[in-house]
Write a structure and sequence with these properties.
4-stranded antiparallel beta sheet; mainly beta; elongated; 143 residues; 7 strands; single chain
């Protein structure tokens, strides 16, 4: 038998039971980190216990949508659940991506329950040098 001493964990469990698991029409949020690493924007989502085939990633214009579903594990008939704290159901997160990101070349990797998306910075957004013309190198535009 398992013993717990954290009273706030019990409150969290009760709140989860009252609110119910996430569904595709009302998914729960998933934790994430986002940061820039060199010429890439990296977004990492925590999805422990989710199989790779239960993850759906879509991008439409600059809206990135990640959906996942954690289903209950199949149990034998003689199994009696003593404690169930791991959330089940649907999870979703939407992120508006900046125009400076190249959404055509997003790479997705899933390892150890973490989905990592690498989004390259678009060439037009990278710093570049502007040459300065001297003397007759300038052209006058008449309008």
């Amino acid at each position: 038998m398992l013993m717990r001493t954290d009273p706030f964990r019990e409150l969290d469990r009760l709140a989860q039971q009252l609110m119910g698991p996430g569904t595709w029409s009302k998914p729960s949020a998933m934790p994430m980190d986002a940061y820039r690493e060199g010429d890439e924007y990296v977004v990492a989502f925590d999805l422990p216990g989710v199989t790779a085939d239960a993850i759906d990633i879509d991008v439409e214009r600059n809206m990135l949508t990640v959906k996942a579903e954690r289903r209950p594990m199949a149990k034998a008939d003689d199994v009696q659940m003593e404690l169930s704290e791991r959330p089940l159901g649907a999870f979703s997160r939407q992120i508006v991506l900046a125009d400076t990101l190249d959404t055509e070349h997003i790479q997705a990797d899933y390892d150890a329950g973490v989905l990592t998306l690498r989004i390259p910075i678009a060439e037009r957004a990278k710093p570049r040098k502007i040459s300065i013309g001297v003397g007759s190198g300038h052209k006058e535009i008449a309008g």
